[in-house]
Amino acid sequence: MTAHTGKPTLAVVGATGAVGRVMLQILSQHADIWGEIRLIASPRSAGRKLAVRGEEVEVVALSEEALSGVDVAMFDVPDEIARQWAPVAAARGAVVVDNSGAFRMDPDVPLVVPEVNPHAARSRPRGIVSNPNCTTLSMIVALGALHAEFGLRELVVSSYQAVSGAGRAGVDTLRQQLSLVAGTELGTSPGDVRRAVGDSTGPFSEPVALNVVPWAGSLREDGWSSEEMKVRDESRKILGLPDLRVAVTCVRVPVVTVHSLTVHARFEGEVTVGRAREILDTAPGVVLFDNPGAGEFPTPADVVGTDPTWVGRVRRALDDPTALELFVCGDNLRKGAALNSAQIAELVAAELGAL
Ligand code: 2RA
């Protein structure tokens, strides 16, 4: 703990990125439990000033010295930077909350969603706690609540992923492409959008404006994408269900922020929509918004900037009384990244006696 305040020192590593900026907003909105909040980024961002808790704080370059005297370090940096620097921070005494993919499946690193498996954060042999991928996080709070009562057996999921999942470059690319196609008749003949967009596909393989792209991440065995494997592997680990059957197709859509998913969830026995709705209505971190007759179901345009997991279109499967169909939306930069990291950091701070 910081000697002069008795409150823990928090480092935000990757403070200038898309998720880092949201972390600073969240830290400014949540109860002020931290002593110093140290902002750390790559050397090229050092010296910039960012606002947190109403104060301008200078960003310092990532170094061993910058990680000294830190109690909790939230990392949002590329996998290779996390792989190198998270163990350095841990060796210097910090508990690391890491939002990269570097450690999520390490058996000595817990993968934590505070509403689902908060107990897991207490056992961290490497001094690192991992934050799940934003696509997993956008659905898992609702599924964890249903699993606790019904016992999950199988998931069949399709994602509709926002471009901010690919960082600021993803957002810049969509906005640039939209400016190229706005006010045109494009989208009426094969390849016309592709020709208008040209090489401006940014981090995506295909045009994303006026399009949907059934791909996110990199190629894995047998045609699966890394993003699809993350949803499967991480759901199993968080729920403690190593044999859970999971089939996922990840799709990128022209939405700035908020990942949406359709979910077919099969349980141990028969389920009722009435009981499922009661569970979702009372689950912490979940909002049930489900009255299609009145046009009420979650959409990214309404969910963006909010904290909960929003659930609508709750139905029992027509051909399987043990299965539910759901439509789920979550802000991929908030619960999908910065908020869940902040919640984990707060769990650790409570354990350190700061709350
Ligand atoms: C994406 N889930 O949406 C990834 C980012 N972690 O691209």
From TrEMBL:
Per the record, a Pfam family? Semialdhyde_dhC
Pathway as given in its UniProt record = Amino-acid biosynthesis; L-threonine biosynthesis; L-threonine from L-aspartate: step 2/5; Amino-acid biosynthesis; L-methionine biosynthesis via de novo pathway; L-homoserine from L-aspartate: step 2/3; Amino-acid biosynthesis; L-lysine biosynthesis via DAP pathway; (S)-tetrahydrodipicolinate from L-aspartate: step 2/4
Q: Which domain of life is it from?
A: Bacteria
Query: Which stretches make up the Semialdehyde dehydrogenase NAD-binding domain?
Result: 9-124
Q: Which residues are involved in binding substrate?
A: 161, 252
Output the Gene Ontology terms for molecular function.
Answer: aspartate-semialdehyde dehydrogenase activity; NAD binding; NADP binding; protein dimerization activity
NCBIfam families attached here?
asd_B, PRK14874.1
Subunit structure, per the record?
A: Homodimer.
This molecule's function is given as: Catalyzes the NADPH-dependent formation of L-aspartate-semialdehyde (L-ASA) by the reductive dephosphorylation of L-aspartyl-4-phosphate.
Q: What is this protein called?
A: Aspartate-semialdehyde dehydrogenase
